[in-house]
Design a protein that fits this description.
heterodimer; A: 13 helices; B: alpha+beta; 4-stranded antiparallel sheet; 17 helices; globular
């Protein structure tokens, strides 16, 4: 199969997955108990039945779920209209986009640090197997991987704010709240230190462990022995033949993590009161804001699917076997 | 009022952050001449004095037409005024009003305004502005859903001149001062442009113009920052601090850490679990006041004739069973375990904090916790223990559903403690956590339950919490969850509404508490405390009261420590 066919097939699968997600997304929020209008108005007796009905009409809830509501919703989604958030009373798309930027900054930084440090540590540990470096890196990684997100965040928050005077929450200081983010980068940076550090520690362990076991496997291969026999230096062997092959599982992991970190940031964003998508998910859930939840779930699903697809694409470049098949 | 219940529901829904729990209802702003305390210190000499308050929820909106969270009312209290306001001692004093009186007909109220009141934009406030604001609520009660009940029974509101407002009511209104405290003077040009309920309620009013001691600088709801500037032209004298910043924290641990390291100066609601810790912080003063919030055990009291017919174990209606249940509840134990000892056992639906204690019936004799007595009551009533230890009178087995709304973190614990006590008297309680929405639907007006644990945060005036037990509230969207139906109670409720004489009203309110206590549609479990904390090394002059240290009257008195 040519690379083009392979990619087209992957794209087709991805699109199918998106469609299935859309359907599940729609059904999921409609089989939940309770009347969404009631969830919006609480138990407010002053809202007359007429006003309640008007709200139902506004949300399209007066029509049958299938096919009217379904077709209507899908039609709106297709046109990029994700509806109006009930709790924030703003278009869902605008809310998601604004928060996505903040989350991408946080996740991006955290992932980059975690990947670089994790890969280097893993490489070192695997290369110098059973050395002090290996044992300490392994111990650290296992602990970091096992530690609960929330707990680590709180501990770092307490330590960082007590000893280093770092902020206890928020994305910028109150004084800078009206300014655009790019104008207050140093302040934003100060607010990013602790959440980024938390994220880095949490993911570092995983990358390090995978990298270590992967490089160990690779170093046992015959072609490494051949390379050594050709008289290449340790370093050349590691870089030219070891690293590239050992990176394959890491690419998969990066793709998976990037897809899921949008949701995985819920804990970190909640600990550090960081204005991002994760916190938005939580708010939307507790407030039963269905349009916002639907939009958020859709974004989450699409980002996981996209990340997986890009891993597949990357594989065609990294792994000759994929091309061959 | 509804706001209070919503708070109760949100609380029940686990959104503890959403409402200051036992937080006394917000009041309007005043430091009127009748407000007791004078400033104790001069303003800080150097640099602006900025007071940072931390909380775990944003105001839902700054539009009084449609605001439900306590946080919104905290802000209204600072930026708006009503004609009156509740002072820290529970009495009502003038805010915009200099004085007020009711004519001999008991329905014509004349209110004179203070001099020199200005809107935040510098314009003079006229009596006609206030009349407009109240008329707007009266004209479209369903648009102004969060304030409309305060204008119930108002017939006509006029402004005969620039400094006088006249209100004529359809019947005598006993709690007029309380109602006027929540009918905020909103700036007419901001609110006179709407043509539908939806338009009005979608208006978030983030640039609100009011008359209060603080004015809006900015509210960025996404970033969780709200900044208020001092209104130095405030008619009762401006604040001694220059700015207030409210910052939202998404978890309570971070909030407390922020107070510890000095990122914030004030916490509006300290979780009971953290109170002891906070007391040990250097430079921090922890404040504990009696609160208004209570939790109760609801016993199904729905009328047999209800449509649909109630689904329950009929034994729950037996007064002997109800008394035995009450005797088997160890309220002090609940306080100690669930509230870490910070609270007090409850008896009536009118907490001791309402009106400075004026409305709470002090003569109610609490049912003593006594398992042996409870067993004897059931023995005498003819309930004999079966082979499995559960009592039955041959017809009804004493096995009841004990339900509670899911997300509240303390309810499972309460349910377990109650169930284990009930077991000791041969009553089997099937504990079940139910999603809040579904539980609401099962309770009102369906009556498909036996016992439910839930909570309330009453308004400052007893009227609201008393109304919850009236028969006609057991309708879809109504407040009654017990289905209590007593024509006598209903009549007393109407009587207290019209009892202009305060001590006469007090007697009626006491009588109503008696009835609820003895008929037991509710068994009140405990009253919570209001827990707050502030940096005493930075600010001083807070007035401690059940209303909280962050009400306008307290903040007007606060100065920065030199």
């Amino acid at each position: 199969m040519s690379r083009r066919d392979y990619l087209l097939r992957k794209l087709g699968f991805s699109l199918m997955t998106v469609v299935i997600v859309l359907v599940i997304n729609f059904v999921l929020f409609r089989i939940l108990p309770g009347d969404p209008v009631r969830a919006v108005i609480g138990r407010n007796v002053r809202i007359s039945p007429e006003v309640q009905q008007a709200l139902r009409v506004q949300f399209g809830l007066d029509k049958p779920v299938f096919p009217d509501q379904f077709l209507d919703t899908v039609g709106q989604w297709a046109r990029g209209n994700l509806g109006i958030s009930w709790s924030l009373r703003r278009p869902v798309k605008d809310i998601l986009l604004a928060k996505l930027v903040n989350t991408v900054i946080l996740i991006g930084l955290g992932q980059i640090f975690a990947i670089v440090l994790g890969v280097v540590l893993g490489l070192l540990a695997g290369w110098k197997r059973k050395s002090a470096v290996d044992v300490s890196a392994l111990t650290f990684s296992l602990i970091a991987w096992a530690v609960p997100t929330f707990w680590l965040g709180i501990i770092l928050l307490a330590a960082g704010s007590s000893w280093l005077g770092l902020p206890t929450g928020g994305i910028v200081s109150p004084a800078n709240v009206s300014k655009p983010l790019y104008a207050v980068l140093p302040d934003l940076g100060r607010h990013l230190i602790l959440p980024t550090l938390t994220l880095t520690i949490l993911y570092l362990g995983e990358y390090m462990l995978i990298m270590r076991s992967s490089i160990l496997e690779v170093l046992g291969e015959d072609y490494i022995l051949t390379a050594k026999a050709k008289g290449m230096s340790q370093w050349q062997v590691l870089m030219r033949h070891g690293l590239k092959n050992a990176m394959l599982p890491i690419v998969t992991l990066i793709a998976l993590n990037l897809g899921f970190t949008v949701s995985g940031a819920i804990y970190i964003e909640t600990v550090f009161s960081y204005d991002g998508l994760g916190k938005l998910f939580q708010d939307a859930l507790t407030k039963q804001d269905y349009p916002l939840l639907q939009g958020a779930f859709l974004l989450l699903a699409v980002s996981v699917i996209l990340a997986n697809m890009s891993a597949d694409v990357l594989y065609t470049y990294l792994d000759p076997r994929v091309k061959a098949n | 009022m509804k706001r209070r219940l919503l708070c109760a529901i949100l609380l029940a829904a686990g959104l503890l952050a959403a409402c200051s729990r036992q937080r006394a209802s917000p009041t309007t702003t005043s430091s009127s001449t009748q407000a007791a305390v004078a400033p104790t210190q001069a303003p800080a000499p150097s640099g602006p004095a900025v007071l940072h308050e931390g909380w775990t929820e944003n105001p839902d909106t700054l539009n009084p037409a449609y605001a439900y969270l306590t946080q919104s009312y905290t802000i209204f209290d600072l930026i708006y005024n009503g004609l009156t306001t509740e002072s820290p001692d529970g009495k009502y004093v003038g805010a915009l009003a200099k004085d007020w009186s009711v004519a001999a007909d008991n329905v014509t109220w004349t209110i004179h305004l203070k001099e020199g009141i200005k809107w935040h934009n510098g314009e003079d406030l006229k009596a006609s502005d206030i009349a407009w604001a109240i008329n707007a609520v009266m004209e479209h009660p369903d648009w102004w859903s969060s304030t409309s009940n305060y204008a119930n029974g108002f017939k006509e509101v006029t402004a005969p001149d620039d400094h006088m407002v006249q209100i004529v009511t359809e019947y005598p209104i006993a709690n007029m001062e309380y109602r006027l405290s929540f009918l905020y003077a909103v700036y007419p040009p901001d609110f006179n442009k709407f043509t539908s309920a939806e338009e009005l309620q979608n208006f978030n009013n983030f640039n609100a113009i009011g008359t209060g001691p603080f004015k809006i600088n900015v509210f960025d709801k996404d970033k969780g920052i709200l900044i208020l500037d001092a209104n130095q032209d405030y008619f009762d004298g401006g604040p001694h601090i220059d700015q207030m910043i409210f910052q939202k924290f998404d978890n309570a641990d971070a909030l407390i850490q922020a107070l510890k390291v000095g990122d914030i100066d004030l916490i509006s609601e300290v979780p009971a679990t953290a109170f002891e810790t906070i007391k040990s912080y250097a430079g921090v003063q922890a404040v504990k006041e009696d609160g208004r919030y209570f939790n109760e055990l609801i016993l199904n009291s729905v009328a047999e004739t209800n449509d649909p017919a109630p689904k329950r174990n009929p034994a729950i209606l037996d007064p002997a069973v109800r008394l035995a249940i009450a005797s088997a509840i160890n309220k002090q134990d609940l306080v100690d375990v669930v509230l870490q000892g910070i609270g007090s056992p409850g008896d009536t639906i009118v907490p001791p904090t309402l009106g400075g204690g004026f409305w709470h019936n002090p003569n109610i004799q609490e049912v003593k916790f006594d398992i042996a007595a409870a067993n004897k009551i059931l023995d005498d009533a003819g309930y004999k223990a079966g082979a499995d230890g559960v009592r039955t009178d041959g017809k009804d087995r004493l096995e009841f559903r004990l339900q509670f709304p899911t997300q509240n973190p303390v309810y499972p614990r309460i349910a377990d403690m109650l169930a284990s006590n009930f077991q000791q008297i041969g009553i089997k309680a099937d504990v079940e956590a139910v999603d809040t929405d579904s539980l609401t639907a099962a309770v009102t007006p369906t009556g498909d339950y036996d016992m439910v644990i839930w909570g309330w945060g009453p308004d400052p005036d007893p009227d609201f919490i008393l109304s919850v037990l009236t028969t006609d509230q057991f309708i879809s969207g109504g407040w009654s969850d017990s289905g209590y139906h007593s024509p006598e109670y209903d009549q007393l409720y109407l009587d207290q509404q019209e009892a202009i004489d305060k001590s006469q009203r007090q007697q009626i309110v006491w009588k109503m508490q008696d009835m609820v206590f003895n008929d037991r549609p509710y068994i009140v479990l405990y009253y919570e405390k209001l827990l707050q904390a502030y940096r005493s090394d930075r600010f001083t002059g807070f007035i401690e009261s059940p209303l909280g240290i962050d009400i306008a009257q307290s903040l007007l008195n606060v100065t920065a420590v030199k």
